[in-house]
Amino acid sequence: MKNNSFFYFLTLNLLKEKRRYAGIVIISSLLIFLLSSVLFISSSIKQTLNYTLKAQPDFIVQNIKGGKVAPINSNMVNKILNIYGVEKVTKRVYGRYFFDDKYSTLIVGVDFLDEQSNKNLETLINSTDLKQFLSKEQMIIGQGVKNYLKTHYYNLEYNFLTPDGQMKNIKIFKTLSSKSAIISNDETIMPLKSAQKVLGLKENKITDIALNVPNDSEWQTVKAKLQSLNFNIRVISKKDMQKAYESLFNYKGGLFLVLFLIVIATFSLLLYLRYTLAASLERKEIAILRAVGWSIKDVLKLKFLENIFLVIFAFILGSSLAYIFVFVLNAPLLKNIFLGGSNLTNFAKFTPVVDYGVLSTIFIIFTVAFLSSVLIPVWKIAVTEPKEAL
Amino acid sequence: MNELFLNNYVIVYLFSETVLFLMALYAFFKDIVILKYWDFESFSARQLKLEKQGYLLSTIATFIFALKFILLIYFVYMIDSLSIIIPGAMCGAGVISANSYGMPLLFIKLTTIFTFLLFLTLNNLDLKAKNYPLLKLKSWVLLAALLLIFLESFFDLSYLFNIDLSVPVSCCSALFGNLEGANPLPFGLNIKNLLILYYTLYIASVLAILLENRFLTAFTLILFAIISYYAVVYFFGTYIYQLPTHKCPFCMMQKEYYYVGYLVWGSLFIGLFFGLIWVIIGFLKYKNKTAKQIAIASISLFVVLCSSYVLFYYLKNGVFL
Amino acid sequence: MHIKIALFKKGKTVIKEFLIYTIFIIILFTAVNLHYFFSKNSINRDSLTVAKVTKITEPSLSVGIFENRFLYLDKSFDNNVYPDMMSINKTGFVYEK
After folding, report:
1. Distance (Å, whole) CA B97 – CA B167
2. C-alpha C38 chain-centroid distance
3. DSSP-derived pairing of the beta strands A138-141 and A167-175
């Protein structure tokens, strides 16, 4: 039975019942498509965030008042610099600026004169432009911000309203590419001083302080020392962030998967009924095969291979279409479930990530459900006695 | 309800295990009926029905075996990926030892797969002969395999429900690494003797299989498997990681080492399983050349793979670790 | 009859229609793999460049005023009755706290 005619017969059989199997394949690939799109999106975002975590400072020091983050004095930087083993202490100034009562941007102030951030800036804008950028008070905006400003006819500049009632006019220098939009979609990067003005911070106040500790065996001690600087200090380590990112979207993916199990269960039940129904139609066919000399084992093999063909076909079709949907078309509709859609339009592009874990997850969940629901009906067909059926 | 149960891998794993459990339960009752009423001499309708159900059982068993095999790999992968969520764990070793159910669970999983493999081999032999000579035996084996599945399901749930995310677990260097001078090796061996024993046992088991001495094969193979475990963890593993202090059976399954751990442990267990199956079949006066060949090929692959890591390290760096 | 003849006919191996489906699947699969091979990590790098300048790595969520875009910035609008329970109707739900 291992020769070509077995295979030939198998394919012939599949194609003969094309109409019956087409329905199963379409529904199966639709289910796989849905599940894999969701899992592809979540694994892609997770991977991007883990990758950008390289830029995350080892520690962030915040000032907490009433459970909320309050501005911190910039002279704290000097205190932190006194701790041994600490380097790259940077002031971070950021906060939300509301264009109106619904739409807002994240203002990020960067000290461009700082040697280190200057170097990083060079990779963002090429060096000839850099001089021009630093000569005036200008800002770099994300794709989402640009889109909002454009629809409100601010193509070249924007007038920020500061909390103390003044106007602050800042020119738009550049728009960040939508390739980085997963991080930068709603960001507005501007000089530190301007950001302080727009956010209403006094000159010696900043949002929080970031610092690096190159020797990771010193992290515990440094963290304790930072915490002892003041009562109301909160220290966030990179590890906290890493863990948060890991379970980031796990909830949504997980919740979706749990709901999906119900769909899969219904699908299995349908399959079971369908195959039981088909059994009565196929009895004659199988009886002929048995009469010709096939054993029960051969018939079982035939039927199982048929179903395995269907599963593999549906799996490749569904997951490939999901790949195209997510990574080529950027997952319209589904994107908003993960990135939100109640603020600026998100222009994020997903980095193609094909995680073997995710793929095997989809494959296992589907194969288990599919094959286990057809197992008993298929056996029932296979053991048909030729005498009874004919 | 902890965060673990919203992890994709855990959900899918539990779902698949549940489906398999239900199938096993179904098969269990059918199997008992067969064991009780089987009578090949009879021409009753019941006997005819039982013969048909025999096919159902072997189909279910094949299905369960195939999925159990995939799920074992998936389980190890899952354990590895959970190491990020569980505090303190760096690789699967920490996660699996998060509570006392972990290690037994892994052991039960391997035993289950072995029992199913044995059943499938017996089933194959049984169906080749026309008068079902092995039916009683294979049904008992299947019963044992199904009972192992029930046990496994219990351990699965106990293991996953008892992982406490707030308590840090030990990482592999604490579990296998420096034990403050204490010798972790069995029988008071040192590394040199361990390696001598490792290669001797390898040659001994291959010879025993070739000479068709079944008692000796069983003895040497089991001993070889035990010694191999220690040899991989305490000697060959350090070459895979290229770090003399890194002693861990799980880290080699990570991406950084090209998932080589799956091949290392997989070839060892496949060799062991097929070797033992060959031994058991032999006692029933059957011959199975394929099992013999797979066993030899598989443990040879294992030995060559392990040794080549050492060899390549030496050729590259000119020193041993 | 049709089936029987097919079974004993030697030499013929694959039906044309089946071949078409297989080729379609293979082309789809290869196209996806090629796209993956040439475009992986290309977008990641851009995000990293921006994150290096701003030192902020939080994802840019398009959230309403009542939700927090920032992981550790504020913790308002939690459920007072069940402080441990996560609210699931907002994007901040994706964060573990």
Report:
1. 12
2. 17
3. parallel
Tokens 């305490």 belong to B234
Residue B241 bridge partners (DSSP): none
Residue of chain A whose Cα is closest to the Cα of B130: A295
Work out the minimum CA distance from B142 to partner chain A, whole angstroms: 18
Q: From first to last of its 390 residues, what are the pLDDT tens digits of chain A?
A: 455 777 788 888 888 888 888 888 999 999 999 989 988 888 888 888 888 888 888 888 888 887 778 888 888 888 888 888 888 888 888 888 888 888 888 888 888 777 777 777 877 777 677 778 888 888 888 888 898 988 989 888 888 888 888 888 888 888 888 888 888 888 888 888 888 888 888 888 888 888 888 887 888 888 888 888 887 888 888 877 777 776 666 666 777 888 888 999 999 999 999 888 887 778 888 888 888 888 888 888 888 888 898 999 999 999 999 999 999 898 888 888 788 777 888 888 888 888 888 888 889 989 999 999 988 888 888 887 777 776
Mutation target to probe the A interface, by most A beta carbons within 10 A, among B52, B59, B65 is B59
Q: Is A258 within 8 Å of B55 when comparing Cβ atoms?
A: no
- Please check whether residue A190 is in contact with residue A198, taking contact to mean a CB–CB distance below 8 angstroms: yes
Collapsing DSSP to helix, strand or coil, A386 comes out as helix
Answer whether A344 sits within 8 Å of C40, measured CB to CB. no
Closest C-alpha to A213, from A56, A71, A51: A56
Reported residue count of chain A is: 390
Chains touching chain C through at least 3 C-beta pairs below 8 angstroms are A
Distance in angstroms (rounded) separating the CA atoms of residues A47 and A156 = 34
pTM: 0.84
Token output for A217:
């065996």
ipTM attached to this prediction: 0.83
CA distance A273 to chain C (A): 26
Which residue from B160, B86, B79, B8 is spatially nearest to A252, judged by alpha carbons?
B8
Q: Which of B55, B67, B74 lies closest to A360 in CB terms?
A: B74
Å from B83 to nearest chain A CA?
A: 11
Domains in chain C: boundaries: 2-94
Query: Distance between CA atoms of B169 and B172, rounded to whole angstroms?
Result: 10
CA angle, residues B156, B160, B165, in degrees to nearest 5:
165
Query: Between A5, A244, A343, which is nearest C71 by CB?
Result: A244
Q: Decide if A8 and C12 are in contact by the 8 Å CB cutoff.
A: yes
C18 touches chain A (CB under 8 A): yes
| A68 to C55: CB separation less than 8 angstroms, yes or no | no
pLDDT tens digits, A105-137: 888 888 877 777 777 787 777 767 777 888 888
